[in-house]
Amino acid sequence: MKQVVVVKLVPDAASRAVLVETLRVCNAEANRIAAIAFAHRDTETGRIEREYALRGRVYAEAKATGIGSQLAQHVVKKVCDAYRTVYAQARSGLLRGRRPAKALAKPVAFRAGAAQPFDDRCLSWDLEARTVSIRAAEGRLRGIGFACSKQDLKVLRAHRQGELDLFERDGELYLAATVDIPEAEAMPDPVDFIGVDRGVVNLATTSDEVNFQGKGLERYRRRMARARAELQAKQTKAAKRRLKQRARRESRHAAHTNHKIAKAIVSAAERTGRGIALEDLEGIRERVRLTRSQRGRISNWPFYQLAQHIAYKAKRAGVPVVVVDARHTSQMCPLCHHAERANRRSRDRFECRGCGLAGPADVIAAVNVRARGRMAWAVSQGSRVAA
Ligand SMILES: [Zn+2]
Question: How far apart are CA 247 and CA 239, in angstroms?
Answer without folding.
Answer: 12
